[in-house]
TrEMBL record:
Homotetramer. It comes from Mucilaginibacter auburnensis. Allosterically activated by ADP and other diphosphonucleosides, and allosterically inhibited by phosphoenolpyruvate. It is an enzyme of class 2 (transferase). This is ATP-dependent 6-phosphofructokinase.
């Protein structure tokens, strides 16, 4: 097994709060182990174009508290093709990069899996997405910040909903997983939830709303985003038709959930996983994601981390149902 001397780090797909803390951890750990580090800007697109920048301890100063990613993120259609991955590999080799740390979610790890299968390039992933939808980690970097941002926003909506005796339909992000909606729904005391599996079940939603206390001034229905953002407007229309007496409003929280200062939980998670990623890469691991399960750092192959349907925790679902009436 050849010793790794120079690594590349990049952020890809959607950004998530805490990515900067993870970049910092990767760079500083690499420096501690005498590895050279190169930042690859704009994810796989930048890898194809050779958009590389040398990094050192100083290049990651004062970023642990910042949202977004200093390396920039994004998706690449070209990298999905074998020709795109060939170009990317050639760029890496021209810089003598012999290992990669990939920060991102499902799309990032699908790309990493393909590159690692086709070329001799060890890659370790750090789960960074607000959606929390990867197998092999209890939480992803960015999830905690996103749910706290959503809670803060919905608490404000509750104030105005209560003043006007209104019913609000609030759509949160989370891709098709519903994991943001589930926790946020509990934390804001939602009267009803629409999450994958139940989202199109309007009769169940009506039953839930009718079961609720009649003396309660405001009601909030938390809706997980579907295929397309904005489905909450459709749901709002249907509710208005069924209950013309409710004063109904719709609010789609959108990308506000992706920004902002990472919470303590996210900074610590990003730092731990960033350190672990470099350590396992040095120890000869490849093509796996490092995650935290029951507070232990565990490696999970890219293949396994991305190909799954994460079941919604039925205990959490039960809590919503028990407490929302
Ligand atoms: O994966 C993170 C996420 O914010 C999802 O929750 C959402 O569906 C998607 O990205 C939005 O992507 P974009 O920023 O391209 O609109």
């Amino acid at each position: 097994m050849a010793k790794i001397k120079k690594i590349g780090v990049f952020t890809s797909g959607s950004d998530s709060p805490g990515m900067n803390a993870a970049i910092r951890a990767v760079v500083r750990t690499a420096v501690l182990y005498d590895l050279e580090v190169v930042g690859i800007r704009r994810g796989y697109e930048g890898m194809i174009q050779g958009d590389f920048t040398p990094m050192n301890r100083k290049s990651v100063s004062n970023i642990i508290q910042r949202g977004g990613t200093i390396l920039k993120a994004g998706r690449s259609e070209e990298f999905k093709t074998p020709a795109g991955r060939k170009k990317a590999f050639e760029q890496l080799k021209s810089q003598n990069i012999d290992g990669l740390v990939a920060l991102g979610g499902n799309g990032t790890f699908i790309g990493a899996k393909d590159l690692g299968r086709e070329y001799d390039m060890p890659i370790i992933g750090v789960p960074c997405t607000i959606d929390n939808d990867l197998l092999g980690t209890d939480f992803t970097v960015g999830y905690d910040t996103a749910i706290n941002t959503a809670i803060e926003a919905i608490d404000k909506i509750r104030d105005t909903a209560e003043s006007h005796d209104r019913l609000f339909i609030v759509e949160v992000m989370g891709s098709d997983s519903g994991l943001i909606a589930l926790r946020v729904g509990i934390a804001i005391g939602a009267e009803a939830m629409m999450i994958p599996g139940t989202r199109s079940d309007m009769p169940a939603l009506f039953a839930r709303l009718e079961m609720g206390r009649k003396d309660k001034a405001s009601k909030i229905v938390v809706v997980a985003e579907g295929e397309e953002p904005g489905e909450a407007f459709e749901i709002g229309k249907i509710i208005k038709e069924k209950y013309p007496n409710y004063d109904t409003r719709v609010s789609v929280l959108g990308h506000i959930q992706r920004g902002g200062k990472p919470t303590c939980m996210d900074r610590v998670l990003a730092s731990r996983l960033g350190v672990a990623a470099v350590e396992v890469l040095r120890n000869g691991h490849r093509n796996e994601m490092v995650g935290l399960i029951h507070n232990d750092i565990i490696g999970t192959s890219f293949e396994r981390s991305i190909k799954h349907n994460i079941d919604l925790n039925t205990d959490l679902l039960k809590v919503v149902e028990m407490l929302s009436l």
